[in-house]
Amino acid sequence: MKIAVITDDGKTISQHFGRAPYYLVLTIEGGQIVSREMRSKLGHNQFSAEAHVEDHQHGPEHGTDAASHNKHVSMAEAISDCKVLLCGGMGMGAYESMRRLNIQPLVTDQSDIDAAVQAFIDGKLMDHTELLH
């Protein structure tokens, strides 16, 4: 099974799905990580030509409209072979888009990738949906 983790550096889990520049994709077999691969990730910066994302305000409908879902689909293309996405935070729209794409998003309060992945393997990683925005 392959899982993806949003990251800025390949060691820690990014706190913001939309701004993270990379996915670390891990292949897990027999309860062990057998390979790691850094993949570039589309994010807010790539979509900033369409809107000034640095200046926008998050309203109640932010990220849940069809245009946002299409952006989330573009962001997820790089991990279409993954079953799970670990992140430190994301918007509700992105969370729901991942679910619609059959990628299970898990929002974790852990920052260390290896510790979070081991907790996932052990079935102990909690989905902290209270961290959604």
TrEMBL record:
Pfam families: Nitro_FeMo-Co. SUPFAM superfamilies: Nitrogenase accessory factor-like (SSF53146). It comes from the Bacteria. Residues 9-121 form the Dinitrogenase iron-molybdenum cofactor biosynthesis domain. This is Dinitrogenase iron-molybdenum cofactor biosynthesis domain-containing protein. It comes from Levilinea saccharolytica. The lineage of its organism: Bacteria, Bacillati, Chloroflexota, Anaerolineae, Anaerolineales.
